[in-house]
Each structure stands twice: as C-alpha cells, then as structure tokens.
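Input/output pair, single chain:
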Amino acid sequence: MAVAATLSTRTLGHLRRLGGGLLDLVLPPRCLACGAIVGEPDALCGACWGGITFFAPPWCAGCGLPFAHPMGEGAVCGECARGRQPWDRARAALRYDKNSRPMVLGLKHADHTHLARAFGTWMQRAGGEVLADADLLVPVPLHWARLFQRRYNQAVLLADAVHMAGGPPIAADCLVRRRRTPSQGHLGPLARERNVRGAFAVQRPSTVRGKQLVIIDDVMTTGATVGECARVLKRAGAASVRVLTLARALRIDAY
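Output:
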C-alpha cells in the first residue's frame, strides 16, 4: 500500500509538471510589467527588473525610509526620531515611481488581479521584521460604494497574497470605512489627514484587542490613510500596529 501510494504521488507530480510544461508551450509566462516572455510565472524580465527599485537595508528602523549610506543598527529618520508616526513600524516592498506605477495602478484600477500573487511575495520578503510575530493582517478597507464600483479591494488581495506567502491570517472585516472619502491623488499632506480623519471604525474590538496587527495597503504616500487606521486600531486596544505596503512614494531628496 505504501509503495502504491508513493507511486501514485510520484505520478501525480509528473503529471502536474507535464501539464505545466504543456501550458507554458501554449501560453508562455509573461513579464508582469511589459508582457515579454519570461522563464517562469509571476516574474519580471531583466529590463523591467532593473527598472524597479526594491527597498532593502540600509533603511530607517522605524518606517523603512531608505538611507543613502549605512547609519548604524537601529538608526531612524527625522520623522521617526520625533515620534510623529502613529504606527510602530512600517515597511514597503518597492518605490512608487514611473517604473512601478503602471503595475500598481494595474492592480488597483485595471482588474489586473493576477499581479497580486507576485506582489504578496515581494511584500512578505520586504516585511519580515513587521510580520515576524504578527497575529493578524488588516487590509485598509474601501467604502462599500467604491467596493461595489471596483468589485474588489486591492488591499484584501495583497493581504491574501502575503498570507499565502507565509504571513499571518487576515482580519478582512475588522476595519470599516464609514464614509466615502474623496480621492487623495492631488491633496497635500495636511489635506490628506483632514480627508481621512474619522473615516474608519473597528467593527469588533475583541478581534484586535491585545493583538499584534499589520495594516496592508497598496501605496503609502504621506501615510495619512494608514496612520488614521493605526490610531483607530490602537484606540480599540491593539497591542501594536505596523504597516506593510506594496509601494511607497518618496521625495526626490529622500535618497
């Protein structure tokens, strides 16, 4: 019986590999950014990979802001040193710029939901420090009207991909957006803070009380949205609130 089971398992494995090989012949894997043929699924071609800025140390121990040179273990940026961040720690996988923007917006607005799996793997790799002892992933919610219009929440897709890549479970409905906020694309830092103030609420405080939470979102620009989410979660009793985003927008002089 054991031999038969082993043979059966091996046969299934061979069939899966054969099926995957045949599928690649018919529909070869394509670069996530430009669509060129690549060697494996969920990958970038060499040219596109070279154009994406993936974050890695040296960076601020608090918010993950990249440093141009090593600053010593535990070094923090000016904002984190002044204690202005409402979250405990933040990380992002890549820089939001002209090279990464089409992919990020493709997920957010163009139904390119297949991108989420690769993005989640990148986020899990970049966010090891914030995910290490986390209890739950909390995706930034959409207002119900926008969710109805878009049909999916990209933050939930990213949270699911991070979970599938080895991250903690998802608490997709513990945070709600109780009013529809205008788009923040052309707002400055102070206007963004006013725009999201009071926009979020915790549905079941018992879900987050005493927990180590990680907020998941697609892009952090000024941090207003994730900051307001962090404040609400901490008021509900969360032990710590960290942030993990796919991308982060930087000022030119941040490097």
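Residues 1-7, 18-24 have pLDDT under 50 and may be disordered. Residues 53-254 form a domain with the Rossmann fold fold (CATH 3.40.50).
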